[in-house]
What we know:
Blueprint lengths: L7 E4 L3 E8 L3 E2 L9 H16 L8 E5 L11 H8 L8 E3 L6 H14 L5 E8 L6 E2 L16 E2 H5 L1 E2 L4 E2 H11 L4 H20 L13 E3 L7 E3 L19 H5 L19 E11 H6 L6 E10 L9 H12 L6 E6 L4 H11 L12 H4 L3 H19 L3 E8 L3 E8 L5
Parallel strand pairs: 4-5, 4-6, 15-16
Antiparallel strand pairs: 1-14, 2-13, 2-14, 3-13, 6-13, 7-8, 9-10, 11-12, 14-17, 16-17
This protein binds coenzyme A (COA).
The site of coenzyme A has 18 residues, from α5.
Amino acid sequence: MAASRKxxxxxxxxxxxxxxxxxxxxxxxxxxxxxxxTDLGIKAAREVLKRAGVPADHIxxxxxxxxxxxxxxxxxxxxxxGLYAGVPVDVPAQMAQRxxxxxxxxFRQAGEQIQGGQCEAALVVGTESMTRNPIAAxxxxxxxxxxxxxxxxxxxxxxxxxxxxxxxxxxTAENLAKKYSITREQVDEFASDSFAKAVAAQQAGFHAGExxxxxxxxxxxxxxxxxxxxxxxxxxxxAQDTHAxxxxxxxxxxxxSVYPGGVxxxxxxxxxxxxxxxxxxxxxxxxxxxxxxxxxxxxxxxxVGVPPEIMxxxxxxxxxxxxxxxxxxxxxxxxFEINEAQGAQTLAVGRELGLDLAKLNVNGGAxxxxxxxxxxxxxxxxxxxxxxxxAGLRYGVSSACIGGGQGIALLLENPDAA
Length: 418
Ligand SMILES: CC(C)(COP(=O)(O)OP(=O)(O)OC[C@H]1O[C@@H](n2cnc3c(N)ncnc32)[C@H](O)[C@@H]1OP(=O)(O)O)[C@@H](O)C(=O)NCCC(=O)NCCS
């Protein structure tokens, strides 16, 4: 049989997101920069269990995501997040990785595990310290030879390049700008809107509804080492996202493009931030038995591959596959949360799909709020679920492009509007 269409599609019959919570997203090298992604993850995980009213011993699976190793104990990150969140010692924990799609992948895998009867409730946590990206070398285990190159490099800068295509992520957006005839003015206008929407949502208190303030505190675990968070200096609390500020087009227009003649700048690309986001995903049977209401139903997921040199277009075919297989049309979707990895990239997705931009990232996107890689998909999906409730809309799609050339998308349903 000829396989004409590649990609994964999952339909989930009765899978709920019970609740979600996240830390603030703080510009890198800022107030969260010294905190390991494990501790940020524990913070978000403890909070979401509290908000969902789910005892930690009801969790049957821990799935965590983290891209950059932010400490020497990163191998243990999912396990330590689970244990220090209070999840019983006999519950397994795993790391999932789909680069910028990791956060969505966590929901996809949780859905598969729940639907497959592996567990009733899963704790999913995406966490990223962009600040603690190491300055790393892979060549020096056996020493340094006189005159030979020293291999230490900035992991973050290097990891934003795809050696297969020989280009970095900003250049993939430049390729899309050329392909879809997107101008610098259009990208700056899109970015300026993202900042304005984020600031408005912040002022209206929308983002605060999903944020747990980070404070200095200990994470105790009987019989094991105590760990925790210690804020620096006189800070007692970090409660707000820090990157969003009103950014008029005229200001953005003055910024130097990353590449000469290109459309992407530091002002219209996703901001580098530190953050963690967590959600509890459970079967409807569990939710009903416990007398819970879902924040959203997780209806379906789709993931596809695209050419690495235009990786940013990934959400377009992922959303097409998602909707086609779910039997829905673009017009049925009330809200889209598509990660703004780069402005030209998101505009290209919009053009490819013929998207109504008035439905897109209505509370601001990653250009204004930031893109903490593995946390992003969880953050966007929580924001989408809350926005569907706020607006009284039924269906929403959260999605992201993925370096290396993939796209992933989730379909949520607001139970109040079903
Ligand atoms: C685009 C990128 C390379 C810019 O990095 P950078 O040069 O360190 O960016 P900065 O934050 O320093 O911004 C550059 C300048 O623009 C200014 N700027 C940024 N946003 C601004 C805004 N909203 N308003 C006014 N000025 C702004 C900065 O103040 C800075 O000015 P300076 O040079 O005078 O200090 C980096 O942000 C990036 O790679 N982002 C995308 C990440 C990514 O691709 N993720 C994965 C997706 S697949």
